[in-house]
Design a protein that fits this description.
Layout: H1 11-21, H2 26-29, H3 35-43, H4 60-72, H5 85-88, H6 93-109
Helix pairs in contact: 1-3, 1-4, 4-6
């Protein structure tokens, strides 16, 4: 519970932050940390295109994918996602994200 902006972020820490932004509370996670958080994240699609695994640090590319997925996810209250593919984005957006992530992975390796 200490803010350390210079530290790397574990996948489960990033997932917990995003879930809280989507309206989830500690009581929603149940059980032992981070299994509840990771289960919810998987179920609502937050981990799509995220390559980091539990216990590993996220790369920038993972943070981008996680935040993009959050914008496409419904909140805990069931409010429609922030990005609506039929309104704001062209068809094939998920493919476009995959292509973007591929390009960014190449860039970050250099």
């Amino acid at each position: 519970s200490t803010f350390r902006p210079e530290n790397n972020v574990l996948l489960e820490e990033g997932v917990t932050i995003v879930l809280k932004l989507l309206g989830y509370e500690n009581s929603d996670f149940g059980g032992e940390w981070p299994y509840g958080q990771m289960g919810i994240a998987e179920n609502i699609g937050l981990l799509d295109n995220v390559t980091a695994t539990q216990g590993s640090y996220m790369l920038r590319i993972d943070a981008i994918a996680l935040l993009f997925n959050a914008l496409n996810a419904d909140t805990k209250q069931g409010i429609s996602r922030y990005l609506k593919p039929d309104t704001y984005m062209e068809k094939g957006t998920r493919y476009s994200l995959g292509r973007l992530l591929t390009i960014l992975r190449i860039s970050f390796k250099s």
